[in-house]
Amino acid sequence: MPNSQQPTPSVRSSSNDLVVRIDKRAALLFLAGLAVIAAVYFLAVREPYGRINVQAENSIANSAAATVPSRAEDSSVTQEAPSALPSPPHAEVIPPIEPNTSSDAVDTSASAPQPSPGVSESRTVVVYRPIQPEPSEPSQTDSSPADNLTPNPPADPPPPPNPNPAPDPPASSSDPVAPAIVNGAGATFPYPLYSKWFAEFRKLHSNIQFNYQAVGSGAGIKQLLQNTIDFGGTDVPMTDEQLATVTNPILHVPSVIGAVVPAYHLPGVVELQFTPEILVGVYSGRITNWNDPAIAAANPRANLPNQPIVAIHRADGCSTTFIFTDYLSKVSMEWQHTIGKGTGVYWPLGIGGKGNEGVAELLQQTTGAIGYLDYLYAVQNHVPFAGVRNQKGNYIKANLQSLTAAAAGAKIWSDFRSSISNVPAKDAYPISGFTWFLVPQRSRDASEARDLKAFLHWMLASPSQVTASSMGYAPLPEELTRKVDSEISRIH
Q1: Which residues of 15-54 are buried (b: 16+ CB within 10 A; e: fewer)?
Q2: What are the phi and psi torsion angles at 335 (to 5°)?
Q3: Which of these, 273, 296, 475, 481, is most buried using a 10 Å CB contact count?
C-alpha cells in the first residue's frame, strides 16, 4: 500500500492555491485601502493649497497693477484685510478672478495690514469690488468707468459756489463774471455817508463792491495821482497845478454839502450871532474881549461878559480850515493878503487842537473860548454855535436848508470846483462847501468805468440824497444834480 501513504498532489496544490489567492486579495484590499486613504487625504488638502496658489498668483498680478496710480475716488473702497485666515476646513472659498491690470486697480499693499508672526507669507488678501448694476438713465456728470464700481452710491454733487443769483447789474452793463472791487480813499468828513451809500448800493448790485479808506483829502489826492486807487474823495478841490500833472483828466463830482460853524463856550449866553468882521477881528487879534462893541452890536439882547476871548483853531491840516479861511479871505481883503486860505495857515494867535475832537475838548475846558468845527460834528455832539450874517445881510444859522441854498445860489463852474462860501443868496449859510468824488475820466478798464458811472448816477438820485439828509448831510439842489449827472457820462 505504498501508494496510499503518499499525499495527494491535487489536494495540496488546491490548498496552496487558495492561500495564494487569499493573500493576493488581502494585498489588493490593503493596497486599495491605502489608495482610498491617499485619495481622501489628497482631496482634503488639495483645495486649500490650490486656493493659496491662486491667491498668490492674484497677489502677484495685483502687485503689478499697483504700480499704476489709482484714482482718488477708488481709495475709498479699499477693504481692510483680516488679521488671520480661518482654518482650511471652515474657510469660505473665494472664487478666483482674472488679474486686474487696468488703471483703476486697487492698491491693497498700502491699506492691508501686515501678516502677524506665524502666518504664511503666501496668505495675501485680494480685494474684489462688486460690480454695481448699471443705472437706468445715463449720468449727467463726466465720470470714468471706474466711478461706477464703487460699493456705495456716489455722493450728491456739491452745490454751486453762488446758489443765489445776483441782482440785475446796472441797466447799461452785462453780468460780470465775478464781483468787481472799486477802491477809493480820501476825505473823512463824508465817510459815514459813503459807507452807508456803498452798503445800500451793494444790496442792489451785489456784483459791485466799493472799498473806501478815510485817510484825509490830501492823502486821497496823492494816491489818486499815483494811480493806486480808482477814485478819490476830497473836501478841497484839486489845484490847477495838480491837475496839470495828469494826462488823464480828473472829474470833480459833488456829492453833498458841508459847512463850518463858529462854536463857543460862554456860560449864561444861549444864542449868539457873528458878523464877518467879528470873525476876522477875533482870529486876527483885533477883537479880544466878549463885550467888544462889535459883538455887542450884533447881539443886543445877549448879556455879554467882560471876559477875554480865547481863539482856538485846528492844529492839523484839514478841509475844515480850508473852508473857514476861504470864507475869511472873501470877506476881508486884509486877511486874503496877509494870511490867506488853505488847509493849514499861519495863525497870528490862539491855541490849536487836533481834529474836531481836539477843538471841542479845548472849548469845553476853556471858558470864553471860540473855535470852528464841522457842522455835522457840532450837531451830533450838541456843541453850541452861532449864526453868521451872509452877503445879503441876513443872520443865518447852519442847517440842511441853508446849506443847500448856498449851493443853489452859487456860480457853479463847468468843472464843479466852485467855492460856495459867502454866496449872494438871502437864505444861504455863508461858510459852506462841497465834498467831491474825484474820478478819472478814462478808467483802467471798461467794467470799472461802468461800475463807477452806475454808482454816481444812483448817488445823485433823489432817494440817495434823502439818505444823506437823514444823516445830517445837506443834499445837492435839483438843478445841480441834473448838470452833474450829465457830466458823469464823460467817464469811460
Answers
A1: eeeeeeeeeeeeeeeeeeeeeeeeeeeeeeeeeeeebbee
A2: -60, -45
A3: 475
Residues 285, 422 share a domain: yes
Q: Distance between alpha carbon 203 and the CA centroid of its chain, in Å?
A: 15
Can you tell me the mean pLDDT for 192-215? Answer: 95
Indicate whether 445 belongs to any domain. no
pLDDT in tens, 164-183: 443 444 444 444 456 689 99
Here the cell at position 379 is 450837531
Choose one of 130, 164, 196: the last residue of a domain.
Answer: 130
Query: How many residues comprise the chain?
Result: 492
Are 304 and 269 in contact by the 8 Å Cβ rule? The answer is yes
Please state, in angstroms and rounded to a whole number, the distance separating the CA atoms of residues 89 and 81.
20
Per residue in 97-130, pLDDT (tens digit) is 444 444 343 343 333 344 444 433 434 333 334 4
Residue 182 sits at φ, ψ, to 5 deg, of -110, 120
The gap between the terminal CA atoms of the chain, to the nearest Å, is: 158
Tell me if 106 sits within 8 A of 77, measured CB to CB: yes
Nearest to 219 by CA among 316, 312, 353: 316
Instruction: Say which residues have a Cβ less than 8 Å from residue 174's Cβ, sequence separation at least 6.
Output: none
Any alpha helices (H) in 339-461, and if so which ranges? 355-365, 375-380, 400-408, 446-460
Q: Give the C-alpha separation, 215 to 197, whole Å.
A: 18
Residue span of the structural domain in which 90 resides: 43-130
* Predicted TM-score (pTM) of this structure: 0.64
In a domain, 385, yes or no: yes
The angle formed by the CA atoms of residues 260, 262 and 268, to the nearest 5 degrees, is: 150
pLDDT given for residue 264 in this prediction: 97
Claim to verify: residue 120 and residue 267 sit in the same structural domain: no
What is the edge-to-edge ordering of all strands in the sheet holding 395-396?
Answer: 273-274, 387-389, 395-396
Q: Three cell numbers at 142?
A: 463726466
- Per the listing, cell 496877509 goes with 338
C-alpha cell at 206: 451785489
